[in-house]
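PROTEIN DESIGN WORKSHEET
SECTION A - STRUCTURE
LENGTH: 91
TOKENS:
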């Protein structure tokens, strides 16, 4: 995980746990709406919607996702965001 405290954005890879994410972001006084169980993986949590203690104010985890690197069924690696491959991103 890499946290940019100025833009308030975290770049994280699958396999990272919520506890590891929290530790890295809290070092900068940041938090996001994620689950409540520290050993949950952030990829599955995000893809499943993700509801945490900050959810009522800031939405689901998936609402805070900016982009995702996705491997398609045919093996291509794509960056999905609102601007790139938006159909895949919103799916």
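SECTION B - SEQUENCE
RESIDUE ASSIGNMENT:
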């Amino acid at each position: 995980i890499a946290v940019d405290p100025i833009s308030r954005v975290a770049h994280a890879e699958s396999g990272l746990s919520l506890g590891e994410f929290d530790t890295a972001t809290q070092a900068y006084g940041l938090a996001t709406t994620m689950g409540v169980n520290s050993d949950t993986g952030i990829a599955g949590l995000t893809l499943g919607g993700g509801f945490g203690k900050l959810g009522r104010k800031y939405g689901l985890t998936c609402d805070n996702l900016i982009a995702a690197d996705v491997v398609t069924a045919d093996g291509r690696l794509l960056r999905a965001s609102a601007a790139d491959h938006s159909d895949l991103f919103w799916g």
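SECTION C - NOTES
The chain is about 25% helix and 20% strand.
Strands lie at 2-4, 9-11, 67-71, 77-81.
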